[in-house]
Specification:
It contains 17 helices and seven strands. It has about 400 residues and is an alpha/beta fold.
Length: about 400
């Protein structure tokens, strides 16, 4: 480009534009005119290559095909709408590449729509944004059709093969409002994140539950199994009804770890606001205990001090005890990886941000489309690392090798 347009040539173009009162950008601006000129020149070059001879050249006589005028059309670009003259051939066999037949959008317009949609903008917002910033008139129906191109991509993502072993599996969900049979109801979209042997997080799947329970979780775990997962070492969850049992049925040797943060939250529901700091400090003695025995003593002290006033909080800890205590047998470098589902909570937090703009989704497919695009966008920005750091994960992995001999694929 530097060779084709020297600084002197660019200065001359800008000077002429200013003299003629032509703005640099906008629908009638210099950039728009240059875009149209480049597209038209590229189309002429494509047609010459298709026909095999230059305009007016003698080689064209008797070839059976020739130029046949032009068709004027408007296409949307990143510089706004551009009017161009598209050349035709007499046999109608010319298939341009830079501006395909019937195309009304070129460049990154579709990618921009997908990007804006994946960040939580509604179709109405995207419509207004494209009109105000780029002068592009894109109806809400068009925007919906553009985002529908990921439907096949979602199917492929939901059925893609998975690794045989995931050292850690996190499961958690977010609440969404979906219209079902004419009634807006609250459903839960559950996300499963697997950490591979290199310490990278992968969204293994997303499922929207009509009714949560053992049957639902059996279907989710069977799906993972059918896609190639043969073993999970540690599964971290928040004690969802039926989930621990479903995990053990599908992966008999798994260790189910209840998220400590969720246990604390559930216990705090029974505590008055003025006492929360005191009880939070007391509960800390339980989950930071060096051993299971020490944790049992701390729970006993907690029950003596606060059990009479807050028996519900004590019951929460006792009911979650079997799934809470496994991580206490692990060294510190592994404890901080598995004691909470924060690795998935951070993703769910970002998904909540992009779903909150919608009062409700018209159906489950619309909800899945936005959740998938959001996950794809999050993955491209974060790079998928587990969040423990390369060194931290190597230490944790070495610990897993010792704790689960023969279970990892190396």
């Amino acid at each position: 480009m530097a060779a084709a347009l020297s600084p002197a040539a660019i200065d001359a173009l800008i000077k002429d534009a200013k003299a003629a009162g032509t703005p640099l950008d906008g629908a009638e601006g210099l950039l728009n005119q240059m875009t149209a000129a480049v597209l038209e020149r590229a189309l002429e070059t494509e047609l010459t290559d298709h026909l095999g001879y230059e305009p007016g050249a003698a080689e064209g006589w008797g070839t059976g095909n020739s130029r046949n005028g032009k068709t004027r059309k408007t296409v949307s670009t990143m510089n706004g709408p551009v009017e161009i003259d598209v050349p035709r051939d007499r046999n109608s066999s010319f298939e341009p590449v830079i501006v395909p037949k019937r195309a009304r959008r070129i460049g990154n317009i579709d990618e921009m729509i997908l990007s804006l949609y994946s960040r939580g903008m509604t179709t109405r917002d995207i419509e207004a944004h494209l009109r105000e910033v780029y002068g592009v008139n894109a109806s809400r129906e068009l925007i919906s059709n553009v985002t529908d191109v990921v439907v096949d991509e979602i199917r492929a993502w939901q059925s893609r093969p998975l690794d045989e072993v995931y050292p850690i599996l996190y499961v958690d969900g977010i609440r969404i409002r979906v219209k079902d049979s004419g009634v807006v109801t609250t459903k839960v979209a559950y996300l499963a994140i697997g950490v591979d042997v290199d310490g990278r997080k992968h969204a293994l799947g997303c499922w929207i539950a009509d009714t949560e329970g053992a049957k639902f979780w059996a279907k989710v775990l069977s799906d993972l199994r059918n896609r190639g997962v043969k073993d999970v070492l540690i599964a971290c969850c928040d004690g969802l009804t039926g989930l621990p049992d479903a995990i053990r049925v599908t992966f008999p040797e798994v260790v189910v770890q209840t998220c400590v943060v969720h246990v604390i939250r559930n216990a705090m529901r029974f505590v008055s606001y003025r006492d929360r700091k005191t009880l939070a400090k007391a509960m800390r003695e339980i989950y930071t205990a060096p051993t299971v025995e020490a944790a049992e003593l701390a729970l006993g002290d907690f029950a003596k001090q606060h059990g009479q006033q807050y028996p519900g909080a004590v019951d929460v800890w006792r009911n979650a005890w079997d799934e809470f205590t496994p991580f206490l047998d692990y060294p510190p470098e592994l404890r901080k990886v598995v004691y909470t589902t924060n690795a998935i909570e951070s993703i769910n937090f970002q998904l909540r941000k992009i779903t909150k703009n919608r009062g409700h989704f018209p159906d489950k497919d619309a909800a899945m489309k936005l959740l998938y695009l959001g996950l794809r966008n999050i993955s491209s920005r974060r790079g998928g690392h587990s969040g423990t750091g390369t060194h931290g994960w190597k230490v944790a992995l070495n610990t897993l090798v010792n704790l689960f001999p023969g279970r990892l694929p190396f």
